[in-house]
Amino acid sequence: MRFQRVTQSITLTLFTGLLLLAAYPFPEGLPVDLFLRLDPLLAAGTALVIKDVALSLAPGLLVLASSFILGRYFCAHVCPMGTTLDLLERPLVGRRRRSAEDSAYEADGARRSWKYLILGSIVAAALVGISLVHLGSPLSLVTRFYGLCLYPVALLLGESSLTVASPLFTAFGFHDLALVQIQEKVFATNAFVAVAFVGIILLGHLRSRFWCRNLCPAGALMGLCSRNSLVKRRVNASCTRCRRCVRSCPTGAIGEDPLTTAHAECIVCLRCMEICPEKAVSFGIAPAAPRVLAPSDLPTHRRVFLAAGVGLVVSGLFRTSIHRPKPLDKERALVEADLIRPPGALPEAEFLARCVRCGECMKACPTNTLQPVWLKAGLEGIFTPVMVPRLAACALGCTVCGTVCPTGAIRALPLEEKQHAKVGTAWIFRQKCLVWEQDKKCLVCDEACPYNAVSFQPVPELRNAAPFVVENRCTGCGWCETRCPVEGASAIQVSIIGEMRLVSGSYREKAAEYGYVFKTKDNSADGLAPDTFDAPESFVPDGNHSREP
Fold first, then answer.
1. Residue 212, CB half-sphere, CA atoms under 13 Å: how many?
2. 3.20.20.70, 3.30.70.20, 3.30.70.60, 3.40.50.1240: which CATH number matches 416-547?
């Protein structure tokens, strides 16, 4: 087996294994976001946006630094995006046999410069504080594809298989297996993510690894560092110029003269060395300078300025969006009332600067409440995570979303701190509530609330006691909204009113400062869902959150 196949098999297995382990219960100390942290574009781009080099970004910067020595080895041996393309291109688009002239470096022309233009746009936007990293980071793209598309499909297939096999299990006496169920997950935007990724794969019909050759800004960044790398492709005098290496190079890094190499395009896959019948090709520190192709793939100065201009224009569009986030010391931006970020999410401007839209937190969420959004958070917020309480609530004993976040957009909080990270406040819509509107007896919201934040009080015009929300006890967890029996939109809904989002410091101390009292019912915080339904103590609420019809 070729050396590249061995390394790709190991790294893809490790990548998928870590992604599967990004779940509740979380295995403490396991770096499930390792591959995201290794992405040099994610590290460098995020550092430029936040104007700081966080420790979590160090692995990606080390990979970038290693490109000066080893070239673009990451693309061939480590990157799950490249491995996935190698794995799926052949069955989906096949491989056309090309001539050496059509496969050589010179045949690709100006298309190679596209990745540098995309990189220029991302860098220009980053310098003015707008993160476009998620549009080009290969690790963000592939994690999103595996986590939001392949993973839920695999769960669906597993549950369907168990349903079909259940009668057989029962017939053969395996009654425990017959009762096994797999919790399915659903995600917004997953069809779009899948179509976009399949489109990237289908581009392989034009050229193998079309994404890596022409579009990947991470590849462009490493290519700039590896033009004069220490380890290079070398060809000795025994070369017969059969040009098998030219035809087999996955990124077209070899020129029409097989002795020449474009080192910025070479991903050190070693294929040319392994197939050479004369064993004329080797990789190492060259005692004499190898023959290097002229870098015709670099864009002209005019196109560089154009790319930077595109990045600035996109940044301007984001900054002039009606949903534009603003710093804490400015007036509050127009924010959708149901734009509920996960507990521990940084303030909106800082959150958007750090979030790389990888989908790791959404995949890891045990209740499936975290979903990617379209335009609810404006252009800048596309694919960022929000809670959807009507679909599911925030798990009480879980802190996994902050733990798996590779950039700190969601803080990794201890459980006690997370339970004080108020994400919003529930409100009762009286025109939908069974008690307020129809005078029917219903206690579901009170029974579901793990914090005793719902109080039932007598109301003169109603036979049944009516629900009120006590603001200083509600964390916005969403259990009341999830379990409300009303069809369609819930009669009790969480909005962002009262949310707490801190860059640093203790949520528990800030909650005490605001007069919040977040105390769970007995044993409620021991698992994912509230499991006790103790009646709340009698009191007259300070602030009754309900809305008149």
1. 30
2. 3.30.70.20
Residue 416: half-sphere exposure toward Cβ, Cα within 13 Å: 3
The amino acid at residue 384 is: T
CA neighbours closer than 13 Å in the CB half-sphere of residue 54? 16
Query: What predicted TM-score, i.e. pTM, was given to this entire model?
Result: 0.90
> H/E element holding 199?
helix 190-202
Rounded Cα distance between 337 and 224, Å, is 45
pLDDT cut 90: percent of the chain above it? 68
What are the tokens at 325?
């986030």
Q: Is the pLDDT assigned to residue 299 strictly greater than 90?
A: no
- Bridge-based pairing of strands 281-285 and 231-235 is antiparallel
Say if residue 541's pLDDT is above 60: no
Q: What is the pLDDT of residues 396-447, one digit of tens each?
A: 999 999 999 999 999 999 999 999 999 999 999 999 999 999 999 999 999 9
pLDDT bracket for residue 519 (50, 70, 90): confident
The candidate with the shortest Cα–Cα distance to 43, out of 32, 30, 29, 33, is 33
DSSP 66-131: HHHHH-SHHHHHT-HHHHHHHHHHHHHH------HHHHSGGGSGGGGGHHHHHHHHHHHHHHTT--
Q: Name the residue ranges covered by the structural domains of the chain.
A: 3-145+190-285, 416-547
